[in-house]
Amino acid sequence: MGEPLKQEAVIDVQQKMPKHRPFGLRDKIGYLMGDFGNDFFFLLVSSYLMVFYTDVFHISAATVGALFMFARIWDAFADITWGRFIDTRPASKHGKFKPWILRMSFPLVISGVLMFVTIPGMSDGFYLAWAFVTYIVWGTLYSTVNIPYGSMASVITDKPDERTTLSTWRTAGAMLAGLIINAGAPLIVMVDNQLDANRMFMAACVFGVLSICCYIACYKMSTERLAAPVQAQEKGNLKATLKGLMKNKPLLWILVASLLFMMNTMLMGAVNVYLFKDYFQSAAALSIFAVVQTGAAFVAMPLIKPLVRKFGKKELASAGLVLSAITYFALFFMKDLTGMQFVAVASIGMFGVAFFNTVVWAFVTDVIDYHELLTGLREDGTVYSIYSFARKIGQAIAGGIGGFAIAAVGYNAASTVQTQGTLDGIHMLGTLVPAIVYMIVLAILVFLYPLNKKRTDEMVAELTARRKK
């Protein structure tokens, strides 16, 4: 596995904050509530903001794409800045990460609601400026909550099985939010297959309140058990950190894979609204799609821990990607399906995606451990923020490509019926493109990502022995 760059800098992450209860169901539910709260707004934005901007604010799809791309790049650097900031701050009696979730959740939710505000009589130029300001502010504040939340998993427990469990429960939180947003929101915000501005604002307010409740529950129920000594944090060597990051092959390849996967997920989230409302002419089918997507994930979840224990995270995620790629390639050639038939076939691909989408968070804790193995430095916030950086770049690319792609296939927001060429283009974006991306991510995992089950077990054993010294 390689020798650490600075053996003397090894941090005893087994140092425990005093008088904590054992890891258990309360931690799992608390961690679930964090992503539940995150995704109430994240999924609302990823699924409906582009349509809101094109159909309500009357901003061109290409301009919306440029806004999304710029904002996500800005957010990516905000992630790294915030992660490094947190790593240099001492832990409070309530922990190092979760206090920031509570502090920043209120301004985050307020800025999210403001994105969906419409003011009668304002010009198109006003709405364009309003969109740029509110969206960028919301994205920046999202970093201040999501970075500590994601980093927190590695200090709740250091046991691999328990970390996989946290990853599963985190995904369950995202899926529950997805079920509510994607299944319920179309029925609330769409009128005659068109987005209603007043209903959209009402939905943003409701989901904002729910987000706050979830963040409070995450803060109250989660417990940080592991802590790096303050003096080790203060002496952290930035040069050693950067050198370790560059030599961390698992991190570098999971960054690339996650960038592509997130790009694909965001693109599909944006395109699916157009696919169902224009190609299939059925907002109801979009709701069913969300229910089936969530159901497929919940069917997969109980299988993940035993399958990971037997085969490994890398191996399980790769198998899921094979299934997803085959399914979406098949859907590309099935152009005469109804909306419900499309959902039925796509459910197979969703089942495969669930395996990668769930264990990816456990991949992150592995690469954090690998960073410690290389450098002797325990820098959860920094490493997680680098990972989040890649996801934000993926979102930036997806936001840009999504807007440009919808514009390129000829989508006309002023027309209630799109041309056949536009409809075929939307169908291609929702089927062939995901299939290709899944194949590329699969190739990265199989041929380039080095932490298979055997090497991960060896790493855990080496770190455990080192921490006992």
Characterise the protein shown here:
- The chain is built from 15 helices and two strands.
- The protein has a single domain (20-467), classed as MFS general substrate transporter like domains (Growth Hormone, Chain: A, Up-down Bundle).
- It has a two-stranded antiparallel ribbon with strand order 1-2.
- By secondary structure, the protein is an all-alpha fold.
- Mean pLDDT is 83; it is low at 1-18 and 229-236.
- Helix content is 78%, strand content 1%.
Short descriptors:
single chain, 469 residues, mainly alpha, Growth Hormone, Chain: A, 1% strand, disordered N terminus, Na/Gal_symport, MFS transporter
Q: Mind sketching the topology for me?
A:
Blueprint (H helix, E strand, L loop, with lengths): L24 H31 L5 H27 L10 H17 L9 H33 L3 H30 E2 L2 E2 L1 H25 L8 H5 L3 H10 L1 H31 L3 H29 L1 H21 L5 H37 L4 H29 L11 H28 L5 H15 L2
Antiparallel strand pairs: 1-2
- Give the number of DSSP strands: 2
The rounded Rg comes to: 22 Å
By CATH reckoning, the class would read Mainly Alpha
Q: What is the fold-level CATH name, i.e. the topology?
A: Growth Hormone, Chain: A
Oligomer: single chain
Q: What share of residues is helical?
A: over 70%
Determine the mean pLDDT: 83
Main pleated-sheet profile: 2 strands, antiparallel
Global outline: globular
GO molecular function, one term: symporter activity
Protein name: MFS transporter
Keywords: Membrane, Transmembrane, Transmembrane helix, Transport
Organism: Pradoshia eiseniae
Please provide a brief summary of the model.
It is a multi-pass membrane protein. By secondary structure, this protein is mainly α.
